[in-house]
Each structure stands twice: as structure tokens, then as C-alpha cells.
């Protein structure tokens, strides 16, 4: 039985489309900035926090005081791994193409699935396993094609891969924390920890955190408003009304949308290796998402 019974105030297709378009702009905005990626990441989180704080009422403060010490440890770890994800993935865009970087990033649900299998004992269906294999073959094809172009492109692919593993760890931690902490409060705390991690990194590397022209501040604000608020926060809100598998399918929009924008705005042609590998990745992820949707539709006693 589908446990979602709430009726959304608008047709889910509308915010879902907005979110899919919004997340496609993340790599574009990163490319437009000349600031170090850790500075971009810090201001992205800080601007997002400023936008969220007006909605944090007394209920959130009471929930904040109720967080147990063990959960604080998980929240700190989640914020650290989110910062690591942004640092590695955003850095990858300086070396490899937008298409390759975002295709690799779309493997996030695959790494979450692998982690959930080993950490939580979640079972893998044959369809999910086949999807995993197909997606990994696709990334191997993309990497092989990029390695023939330059060592820098392969370095960028590796950075994106490591960044994807980091965000998968963040998601696995979130899976545990969100059983006890409200999602809005979780986002507030984790974003604050992430911003602080970036601040420490910037201090350690001696990065200039404030001396930027107005164009850069527009990019920083754009990263907070477009892919974060109109992307990820909309997806979090939609989880109250649609299946998680529906939201997960949105990861397929980022490499497609970002690659098209990269072609239009930066003249980045999509090579044959990327097309072939991308087809494997999207086919594999689609197979996995379908298996997730089927498991989600099962009665609890059958799906457990």
C-alpha cells in the first residue's frame, strides 16, 4: 500500500520540473565563478541558511534542544561529508567536462544502495543489481574515453567519483538521523556544519573569503537560490506527497540538463564515449529506480 495520502497544494509535476531544471544549473554556476570552490561552497551554504532561518520557529528550537549527543555526532559527520562532497565535485569541474562530472555524480543512489546493503542489511533485487552493474559499466566507459583525452580529464572524473561517494555517505547518515530529527532542522544543522567546515578549510589554505566583485556574489547567491532552494529543498518538500523513487529519478535530469547547458553556454561538445557511457548509466539507474518503486509499492510485511 502506498503510505502517501496527503494531497499536495499544487500538481507534483510542476515543482518536480522546477527542481529538475534548477539542479541542472549547479555546475554551470560553479563554472562561472573564479573563486576557489571552497569559498563558493561556504557562501552557498551561508546564503541558504539565511533564506531558511526565517522559517525556523519555536518548534525547531524545541527539537534542537531535544537532539541527543549521539545524534549530534551523526549530524557533525553528515555536515563534514557534505562539505567533502561539494569540495571534490565542484573541483572536478575545473578538470573534466560538465557532462562527465554530472554523469558520475548521478551514481549517488548506486553508492547509497551499496552502503545500505553493507551497513543496514538492505536487500538487493536482481533488477537493482543489474542496474548497478550497468551504471558502473557506463562510468567505466566515460572514464576510458576521458583518459584518452587528457590526464586532467581523468583526474576530474576521479574527483567527481570521490565526491559522489562522499555525498552517498552523507545520505546514509541522513537515513539514520531523520528517524529522530525533523528534516528542516536536519538541513539547518548540516548546512551550518558544512559552512563551518568550509570556513576552517579556507582559513587553513589562506583563501580570500570576502574580496570579490559583485558578479561573484551573484554566483554565490545563485548557487544557494537555484540548485539548493529551488532544487534540493523542493525535492525534500515533495517527499511528503510523492514516492521517494519519483524524487530519485530526478538525478537523471542533472547530467542531461547540465550537458545541454554546457554545450550552449561553454561550447562543450558531448563525445561518443560520453554518449555511450551515459546511455549505460541512465539505463542502469532507470532499472534501479524501477526496482525501488516496485519495493515501495509492496505491503510492509512483503517489502521488509
From TrEMBL:
It is found in: Endomembrane system. It comes from the Bacteria. InterPro entries: EamA_dom, EmrE-like. Coiled coil: none annotated. It is a multi-pass membrane protein. The keyword Transmembrane applies. Residues 16-142, 155-288 form the EamA domain. The chain crosses the membrane at residues 12-30, 73-92, 98-120, 127-145, 157-174, 181-201, 217-239. Keywords: Membrane, Transmembrane, Transmembrane helix. Belongs to the EamA transporter family. This is DMT family transporter. It comes from Cohnella hashimotonis.
Amino acid at each position: 500500500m502506498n503510505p502517501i495520502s496527503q494531497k499536495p497544494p499544487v500538481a507534483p509535476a510542476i515543482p518536480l520540473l522546477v527542481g529538475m531544471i534548477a539542479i541542472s544549473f549547479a555546475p554551470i554556476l560553479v563554472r562561472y565563478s573564479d573563486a576557489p570552490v571552497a569559498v563558493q561552497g561556504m557562501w552557498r551554504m551561508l546564503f541558504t541558511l539565511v533564506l531558511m532561518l526565517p522559517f525556523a520557529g519555536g518548534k525547531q528550537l524545541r527539537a534542537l534542544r531535544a537532539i541527543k549527543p549521539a545524534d549530534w555526532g551523526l549530524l557533525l559527520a553528515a555536515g563534514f561529508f557534505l562539505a567533502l562532497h561539494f569540495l571534490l565535485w565542484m573541483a572536478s569541474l575545473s578538470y573534466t567536462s560538465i557532462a562527465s562530472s554530472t554523469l558520475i555524480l548521478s551514481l549517488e543512489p548506486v553508492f547509497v544502495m551499496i552502503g545500505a546493503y553493507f551497513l543496514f542489511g538492505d536487500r538487493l533485487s536482481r533488477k537493482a543489481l543489474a542496474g548497478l552493474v550497468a551504471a558502473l559499466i557506463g562510468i567505466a566507459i566515460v572514464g576510458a574515453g576521458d583518459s584518452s583525452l587528457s590526464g586532467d580529464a581523468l583526474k576530474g572524473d576521479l574527483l567527481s567519483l570521490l565526491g559522489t561517494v562522499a555525498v552517498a555517505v552523507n545520505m546514509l547518515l541522513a537515513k539514520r538521523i531523520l528517524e529522530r530529527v525533523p528534516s528542516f532542522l536536519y538541513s539547518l544543522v548540516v548546512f551550518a556544519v558544512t559552512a563551518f567546515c568550509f570556513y576552517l578549510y579556507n582559513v587553513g589554505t589562506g583563501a580570500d573569503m570576502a574580496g570579490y566583485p559583485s558578479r561573484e556574489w551573484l554566483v554565490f547567491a545563485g548557487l544557494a537560490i537555484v540548485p539548493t532552494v529551488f532544487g534540493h529543498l523542493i525535492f525534500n518538500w515533495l517527499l511528503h506527497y510523492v514516492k521517494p523513487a519519483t524524487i530519485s529519478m530526478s538525478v537523471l535530469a542533472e547530467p542531461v540538463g547540465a550537458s545541454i547547458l554546457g554545450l550552449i553556454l561553454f561550447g562543450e561538445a558531448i563525445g561518443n564515449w560520453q554518449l555511450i557511457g551515459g546511455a549505460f548509466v541512465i539505463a542502469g539507474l532507470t532499472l534501479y529506480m524501477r526496482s525501488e518503486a516496485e519495493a515501495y509499492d509492496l505491503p510492509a510485511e512483503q517489502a521488509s
